[in-house]
Amino acid sequence: MFNNYHLHYSYSKYYFFPQVFRYTGYYGGFLFWNFVIVPALAEKRRVVWNVILGLMLLAFFWGLFGITDTWLKGYLFYHKTADYVYNLVFKLNVIYALWVMMMLTFYSAIKYSAQYLLGNVDKIQAKYRILTRNCIIAIVVVMIVTFLMTLSDFPVELITCFVITAPTAIGIYALSFYSLIPQTLAQNKGIFIYLLKVAGIMIIIGLPIGFITNLIFEHSEAVFIVFGFNSGAQILLTAPFAWIVYKRMLAGNQEITYLKTALGRSTADLDFLRSQINPHFLFNALNTLYGTALQENSERTAEGIQRLGDMMRFMLQENMQEKILLVREIDYLNNYIALQKLRVQTSPDIVIVLQIEEHLDGLQIAPMLLIPFIENAFKHGISLREPSHINISLQTKDNTLYFDVHNSIHPKVLNDTEKYNKGIGLENVKQRLILLYPNKHELVIRESAKDFFIHLTIQLK
User: Fold this and answer.
1) Which of 116, 169, 197, 414 is the most exposed place for a label (fewest CB within 10 A)?
2) Torsion of the alpha carbons at 191, 197, 200 and 204, rounded to the nearest 10
3) How far is CA 271 from CA 58, 78, 263, 275, in A?
4) Mind listing the domains of the chain with CATH numbers?
5) How far apart are CA 223 and CA 209, in angstroms?
6) Which residues share a beta bridge with 408?
7) How confident is the model over 410-431, as pLDDT tens digits?
């Protein structure tokens, strides 16, 4: 412009130093805004004072840009009056100062929003499942790029295309992960059907996007250009990218599941081997005691040790199964009853009667289901000072088990630790019966002052 008016032009006077002062002041104002005013406002400290500082910063920018513009546009003084130049320059720079403050506010909003989003990814994702970590990062990037494009005087057309296309891409990506791809895979369809769904969505959202574009550009050609560019980008780029990422995520999850399963299996095998070590030494100890009892002619002790070993073997090997042969459950009952008889067989006033069927035709039952009733009978039905009786009957007919236990009852002494534990085992077995044999069992319990009676029927098939 200086050459157009045939004026002498000094690069340092009319460009370099004014620009240095302008950008130095611009940078200083940015630092003051970013590290003094905004943090105080964010923490709600001295709000009024910091608002005043913000207005003073606006005035500073206005003066800075106005003064430097009088040098950058110094050619105006040679063909216009000084009052006209100052009036023109400072009017224009009021708008520019307001625009700079708006950009600084926009920057601060992006900064604090990004810090909040990135610092609370897990909380946000837990509340809004569609906002994955990648989506949140993408939102932050779009905000920053939009700010930089606005600050760098990019063409309005390019900024508009980016502002429309980028958020749409984030939405399509999130919707694909949350709904479109899982639904397509659940229907055993391929990527072509998925892309058709995305195309349908783009047609639906094309109407509001076209309306917004028409308001900005005010000519129909721009509407079709933006719609075509946005739709093509989503269908050809965003949608296939989301499909690839989702498939890789599925493959990764399957591999993790397989590794967890393998690790769990290995851990279970190791725990099982460990569980076998201690019982192995315990069985050896029982065998030693059994041999010692035979050497000392303690036949009752030897028999008790042998039956205890058989019961422990049952507990370790068969108790963990869902179902076992009924005959194995009865073997355990017989061992327990025989072990208890060793304690009371010298007492003539204690009568134990067993009526247990021997031919059971391969019927199965949940393990340890009957023993609590017999334990309860021996615990509360035997007294070494008073006459006692236990009658146990077990029969099967048409795949139905009939089990009866009838025993005497004796009042417990005050210091008996089992006095208040009566019925706990029975309550547990009631719950097991409800879970294992719903609508296939009947349990009747009757109790009087001197007798306790249970009658249990189970449909085993």
Assistant:
1) 414
2) -130
3) 72, 96, 12, 6
4) 11-169+198-216 (no CATH), 298-459 (3.30.565.10)
5) 8
6) 451
7) 876 655 555 545 555 788 888 8
